[in-house]
Amino acid sequence: MNSIMNNEKKRTDHTYTDFKFILLGQLVSLLGSSITNFAIIWWITITTGSALMLALASFMTLGIQSIATLFSGVIIDRYSRKLLIIVTDLLEAVFTVILIILFIFNYENMIYILIILGFKGLFQGLHEPTVRVIVASMVPEEKLKGINSLKFLFEGLIGLLSPLLSAVLIGIFGIENIEGILMIDGVTFIIAVVVLFFVDIPLVREKDKVKVPFMIEFKEGFSFVKTKTGLLPLLITFNLLNFIQGPLIVLYPLVVADEDLFNENEMILAITLIFFQGGIILAAIIINTVPLFKKFTSGIGIGFIVQSIALLLIPLSIYLLNLHIFYLAAALFGIAVALVNVHSSLIWQSVVPLDMQGRVFAIRSTIALMSAPIAYLLTGFIVQFASILTIFTVVSICVVILCLISWFLTSIPHIDETNVNK
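The structure assignment produced for this chain is given below.
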């Protein structure tokens, strides 16, 4: 308890200002990464035309990221979070440079690219949980809701701009000159790291607690999740949603590019993502300015409803080959993502003690995401035997059923949202 109380004293206007600078640097880095990720996905789509290659790329990135995330929690709670963010940012930048060199010298072998994506996923598995955890240790409790919704807002803006910028750059330089686009990622990584040298990130644990064996701390995180009412069902629901929706993530570029479907170019893919991110931005603005829900779980419930509607519209748009319905579905899905994730984050930041958040948040991320890479890999094989329309229809129906079961037959609506960090 003393460590929590000591940390609470450190959550001041100064740490809040420092966090805003950190967030700014990370958002700049996210912009560069998003631009290059769009370019890489489109390069794989155009170069291979293979759902299996898209599935393998997604699997290598998120699969290894999930494994790294599982073990990142104890590391985050033990060691300097500032150093962790700097090191992982720099290592990810190194592998981006290696990828650029491969393209410059025409070593465009998918095996090399998949390996590099795997390493980048590894570093993201350490980086993302660290950035997520420092929010509650640097932002005063009364400002958590605002900073979470603003974070989603700016991430949404980046998600809105990055595919458009990437599509424009592809149009100017050509996808065959992708190395020029990838250089943007390296530059933005440097900006994010430079910012970190001028800010302080507080430690949240007493030094003597670092001596506790790794596995004991690891088990403490699992124990907390299991014993806190509603958290485990919430995690299982996220896990199943990510598994069921895996085919959507893998196949949406092919929906746009396939000559038997929309048969469009990178700009239409960019516009689709803009509608998705626009939905996130709209929801983030509403959450930040209008007190819609007395309980965070209510925001999750409404998010489930919007998500179900969005996913039912996607196969309808493919069946009718109607881009307008496809765009509407993307926007609604973005609104759902913001509603569910913002309110879920607020629950976790409130109910988990500050000195356990590294371990618990790592377990949260791992359980929520661990099934997605498996879904990505399976998608590459399933698409050989079923049409994209059939796959998307089955996915939509399964998501609706899961949302209904999770809300009405589990303890998710009854999560105790009492803030233990006040």
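Interim note for the steering committee: The chain is about 80% helix and 0% strand. Residues 2-414 form a domain with the Growth Hormone; Chain: A; fold (CATH 1.20.1250.20).
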